[in-house]
Amino acid sequence: MPSIEPPAPHRDESSPHVPTSGPGASPKQVNPMTQDRIYMDHVAAAPLLPEVLDAMMPYFREHFGNPSSMHGVGEKAEEALTQARRQVAELIHARSPGEIVFTSCGTESNNFALKGVALAYQNKGRHIVVSSVEHFSIMHAVKTLEKMGFQITHLPVDGTGRVDPDEVDRAITPQTILVSVMHGNNEVGTLQPIAEIGRITRAKGVLLHTDAVATAGVIPVDVEALQADLLSLSANAFYGPKGAAALYIRKGVRIHPLLDGGIQENGRRAGTENVPAIVGMGVAAEIALREMDNRIAWARKLQKRLQEGILERIPHVVLLGHPVDRLPQIVSVLVEYVEGESMLLFLDMENIQIASGSACISRSLKVSHVMLAMGIDAALAQGSLLFSLGKDNTEEQVDRVLEVLPPIVQRLRDMSPLYKKAARTFRSSADAGTAGPDPRRS
Ligand SMILES: Cc1ncc(COP(=O)(O)O)c(C=O)c1O
Question: Which of 21, 134, 209, 352 has its Cβ near the most Cβ atoms within 10 Å?
Answer without folding.
Answer: 209
